[in-house]
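The following block was generated as part of the benchmark described in Methods. Ligand: iron/sulfur cluster.
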Amino acid sequence: MGIETICGPSWITARLDDVVNWGRANSPWPYIFGTACCAIEFMSAASSHFDVARYGAELLRWSPRQADLLIVAGTISYKQAPVLKRIYEQMCEPKWVIAVGACCCTGGLYNNYCTIQGIAELIPVDIYVPGCPPRAEAIFDALVKLRSAIRKESVIDRK
Ligand code: SF4
């Protein structure tokens, strides 16, 4: 029996949303699926000069089972597609996806036989970050936008 069955949308669930979303928005645990040059840019974002810790996202996970934020950075080939999909499926709910860079968002320069024309063909994407490569600030902007989106969610919708 879910909480919505017990009390429905109410003052209690609204306050619960506030508390749960506060935790989820301020401490994402990212898993990086980096395949090309955009992943190098993420390394820069995560390092001390830019410092992703300012957004509570410094605890990079190396297992999808411990992560709630999948950051895909780089070109994704059809050969890599099943791996990416499997990793997404191994993450527990709630989970979010940020697509970093033109290749990841749309295929970018690589409109050819072997490149996925955007990872939305495979998995749901919450935030797109354009650029080739996007700067660290653009990645941080995506984290800020994701925070805002998480704060508007309801625990009833995201279990
Ligand atoms: S968008 Fe540009 S920088 Fe990023 S992986 Fe593609 S070619 Fe490399």
